[in-house]
Structures are given as C-alpha cells and as structure tokens.
Specification:
Oligomer: single chain
Helix content: under 10%
Low-confidence stretches: none
Distance between the termini: 40 Å
C-alpha cells in the first residue's frame, strides 16, 4: 500500500503563489504515476497535473504555464508549484498515486491511492 499526505495549502490573493507538497510512504516503488487533482463542492474531481517515474508530465489546459509539477524520487515527494493563482483555482487539492497505469493521464479512475486533501483558497 501507498500512503499519501498533502501540505502547503492555504489562502492567497489572486496573482499570488502557493507550493503544495505530497509525501509518499509505504510501497512507493510501485507507483508509476503521481498526480494532483482538485475538487469543489458539487463538481467532479478534476485532474491538474501528473508526472511519471520517468519525469514525463501532463497538465490540464486551465493550469498550463502557471503550475509546475515536480518530484524527488529520493525524498518520495511530489510538489505542485502554483503561480498566477486565480479565484477559480480555489478547491480542495488531492495528491494521488497510480500503481496500475504507466501512462499518467489526468483521469481519476487511473489512480488507486489518494491523500486526504489540502484546501487552497484564492481571493479576488
């Protein structure tokens, strides 16, 4: 099993930056993909960014150019640097891991381990 825990959420004004971090523990070598998703009440969970063990990345169109995902395979962490934040980025952000897929597309069904989430609030 893989355990995930997010940190770094908070409140920021529009145009500001936040850095989220996800710490993975357990059988981390089995994780082929790591990703960040977000969700607001009443909406489906949305993929934000993902990264493969080889370093390939995927981004949602809505965050391309503003967010950057990175990983540290020694520390077993995955970070999401979020710049130029907008009020529409407000959501609960979740870290996710996939041990069953090697192509790290931003579909929630591909990910079988999830963290509890961290709240990001962007005010206008």
């Amino acid at each position: 099993h893989v355990q995930l825990g997010e940190s770094g959420g908070g409140s920021v004004q529009a145009g500001g930056s936040l850095r989220l971090s996800c710490a993975a523990s357990g059988y981390t070598s089995s994780s082929n993909c790591m990703a960040w998703f977000r969700q607001t009440p009443g909406k489906e969970r949305e993929g934000v960014a993902s990264i493969s063990t080889g370093g390939s990345t995927w981004y949602a169109d809505s965050v391309e150019g503003r967010f950057t995902i990175s990983q540290d395979n020694v520390q077993n962490t995955v970070d999401l640097q979020m710049n130029s934040l907008k009020p529409e980025d407000t959501a609960m952000y979740y870290c996710a891991a996939s041990t069953t897929h090697a192509i790290c597309r931003l579909s929630a069904q591909r990910y079988n381990y999830w963290g509890p989430g961290t709240q990001v609030t962007v005010s206008s």
